[in-house]
Write a structure and sequence with these properties.
Elements (H helix, E strand, L loop, with lengths): L3 E9 L2 E9 L14 H13 L4 H9 L4 H5 L3 H8 L2 H17 L19 H13 L4 H9 L13
Length: 160
């Protein structure tokens, strides 16, 4: 049995006296934080944006797996609804501006990069290359921009 000691003080004419007693009750579990509201998430994003955080830090803290959005909206349906909100649209604009401002400068908080290989038809590769050239950017930046876009869940084929 786990015992905890608690001290209680009672005043008397002779001063305060300490009393120690044992309790077998477990310590109370703190309640999980209340989910953030869209305005709260937007405020957190605006704060990072105004601090001129690099885009990687902004993405990780707001949009990443452990970011404010995914910690608040845990189901695909909740995410879909938030991604259709004006708050999400504004967050995407902030992210794009930070990407433009910070470019390929190293982030203040180093985060390793990962490489993926994507198999795609030659015609799609040529289209991406042409689009990148027309937009005067690299294919890498163009593909990252496309990956950051919201995609309607119904347009993504499922594995069979």
């Amino acid at each position: 049995m786990h015992e905890q000691s608690f001290s209680s003080y009672s005043s008397s004419s002779q001063g305060a006296s300490a009393t120690t007693f044992a309790s077998s009750a477990p310590a109370p579990v703190p309640a999980p934080p209340a989910p953030m509201q869209p305005a709260d998430i937007q405020k957190a994003a605006q704060q990072l944006f105004s601090q001129k955080a690099d885009w990687i830090t902004f993405y990780r803290e707001i949009l990443g797996v452990n970011g404010a959005i995914r910690q608040t909206y845990r189901t695909p349906e909740q995410m879909d609804a938030f991604e259709a909100s004006p708050e999400y649209e504004e967050i995407q604009v902030m992210l794009a501006k930070l990407r433009e401002a910070t470019g390929n400068k190293p982030s203040a908080t180093f985060e390793p990069t990962r490489v993926i290989t994507v198999r795609l038809p030659k015609s799609l590769h040529e289209s991406l290359r042409t689009e990148a050239h027309e937009k005067r950017t690299s294919m890498n930046k163009l593909c990252i921009s496309k990956l950051l876009q919201v995609i309607d869940r119904e347009l993504v084929p499922t594995e069979t």
